[in-house]
Structure formats: structure tokens, C-alpha cells
Design brief:
There is one protein chain. Helix content is 70%, strand content 0%. With 429 residues, the protein is mainly alpha-helical. The protein is globular and about 55 Å long.
Length: 429
Amino acid sequence: MDVRRPALHLPSWLLPPGASRDAAVLIAARTVRAFGDGVVSVLLPLYLTRLGFSDLRVGAVATTTLLGSAALTLVVGLQAYRLRRRPLLTGAALLMVATGIGFATVHAFWPLLLVAFVGTLNPSAGDVSIFLPLEQALLPGTVSDRQRTSLFARYGLAASLSGALGALAAGVPAFVAARTGIGLVRALQGMFLVYALLALVALLLYRQLTPAIEPRAEETSPLRESRRIVYTMAALFSLDAFGGGFVVQSLLALWLFERFHLSAATAGTIFFWTGVLSAISYPVAARVAGKIGLVRTMVFSHLPANVFLILVPVMPSLWPAIALLLARSFLSQMDVPTRNSYVMAVVSPAERPAAASVTSVPRSLAAASSPLLSGWLLGLSIFGWPLVIGGALKAIYDLTLLAMFASVRPPEEAGAPEPAIPQSAGSTR
């Protein structure tokens, strides 16, 4: 079997030169999942408030989904080096099916909280589920080092565009309820069943992965040589994620509902355009990184985005606030493909599954604690304190990352030596 021939007919701009068929499968599956994430991240707060949940309980559900994802990712990630990858991904897809069905059929707070913990629901605009570290570890093996960042950028581009379309589809339940008279709650439950159907599509895609993704025994290991640098990055990424947890898309939608009295359709349209701008930024990030390096691209795009976020609550009306959110969305996600590529570049291929998990799990745990605080703050005031706090914490992360890792270069950067860890980060290499 020729594993260099793409298995799916994806547009050529979604696959860098030399990418294998497994890269096409992973991008396609992520695209399908992202549509579901985009839908539910906007509709989740509306659905929960229609069930009678307070802002604090909405925040609690968001926190619980992130906590559950973190726990499952940690368990699987630390053992992934000894497990087969395709069964892990198909099993995660089955769990996603169960999550959609659970949210559509369970209505009481405590049972729903349990479904949120064990499931895959994503209240944010990005991917925080068990899928992320598994796919992140597999992608570098489907392309050359020089195309790695480009592949991560295209992976993010496809996901962001699909998530934007999902956010736009958030207006469908209200339209259906108005035309059919079935009631808004039932229409919202129908969208969670759509989420489950999308998971089935992802499962079928994962079944197309070739044996080439399964590592040989001698090519896998837990974290050893790269342990210190991975732990240091995990701590920094956690600070960023803790700040980001204050403004996960579900709670940002809730703030827009309460501050400007928006409908779900209007909020979905806003998130559609923020998603489109984020998608455009991914290939831009890959090009910029080729000129100034991965770390500088991460920081110099992320820092102004966080300044924009801090300024959003002080805007006197909706349109200036939207303008800042749109400007932020173009810059804020440029660090995603560069960060993922950077982590995979500074560890050995054998350690990639463990590194992907260890850097993802603390992010999920840190992000899980702040939505509850954000929901509490929104219950106290509609000013938008979560946006201010989140932006300030993320700016601190940017400056710290630049100070500690500006000199640690991945091997593909022109003239860069083999990565050496600065004394501030520590190393056992």
C-alpha cells in the first residue's frame, strides 16, 4: 500500500508537500469534530440557562468538562507510548457519541455534571479534549521537519473554519423551533444529537488510518530526556490556559447575551467571523515563523491580542467591542500551530505522545478552574471582569515565555543548533 498517497480528496492547500495519507485523515477528522465543537460551545450556555441553570452552574458545567478531559488525557497520554493509536482514537470517538446523547437526554444538574466530566464536550473555541494530544503526537510523523509547522497550521486552519461554520449553525435551533413549534429546548437537544452523529463520522475516518501511525516498540518511551523542558513548558502553558479559561467561548457567549442582549443567531454570526479570522491566521503564523522563529511568532502575535481582550469590556457599545474581538481573534490563535510544532520539535520522536499529553493536561486543569470563577464574576457584574483578568494573565505568560525560551530553537530554523535548554528552563540532555 502506498502510504504517501492521500486517502481523502482534500484540497491541495490543506496538505503540505509530502504529507502522507494519515495526515489527510487526521485533518478530516479534526474538521468534522470542530464543527460539532463550534455548535455546542455557543449553544451550551443557552441550553443550560433554558434548563434553569444559574450563571454559576453554567460555569460549573464548563469547568467539569475541562476537568474530565484533563483526567482522561493524562491517563491515556502517559500510557500512549505502549498503546495502539487507532483504537485510542476510535474509542475517543465512541465516547464523543455517548457525550452528545447524554447532553440531549439528561436534564438534571448533577447527572449532567457527571456526563460533562466523563465526556468530550468542549466549551471553548479550541480543542481541549483527549483527541488533541493523540493527534498532535501523530502529525509530525506524517511529514518532514521543515513542513511540520505548515502541517500544524493547515490542521488548525481546517478546524477553525469548520468551527466557525459550526458557530454560525448555532442559529438553526431557534429557526427550527419558530417554524415547527417543537420548542427551543427540544431543538437545542437535537443539536447535541447532531454532535453525536458527527462523532460517528470521525470514527469512520479514524478507521482509515494506516499501520504507519503505529510506532515500533523501540521508538516509544515515557518522558525521560526531555522531562524538565516539558514540565517547564507545561507550567507556562497552564498559566496561559488559566487565563483563557476566563473567556472560553461558552462564557464569552454568555457575557454577550447578558451585556448586549444578543440572540444565539447573532452571537453565532460573531463567532463565525472570529473563527474565520483565526483560520486565516494559521497559515500566516507558519509563514511568519519561517522568518522570525516559532517562539517570537507565538509571543509577538499573542501579546497584542491580549491587550485587545482587556479593552473589550470598556467599549461603550456593541460594535467597538466586536471590532476588538475580531482583531483579537486574528492574532490570538497564531500561537496554536507554532506552539504545537515547537513542543514536538524540542523532544525526541519517541517522547512525543507523553510530551503532548503532559503539556495538554495541565492546560486543561488550569483552564478548568477559571470558568467557574468566570461564571461567578458574571453573576456579580456584567462589566466583563473575566475578560480583563484573562487578558492580563495571558500577557504575563507571553512575556515569561519570551524570556525563558527565545534562545531555544527547533532544528529546522535556519542556522539553529540542536535544541539546547536554557539554564532557566533546566535540562537533563
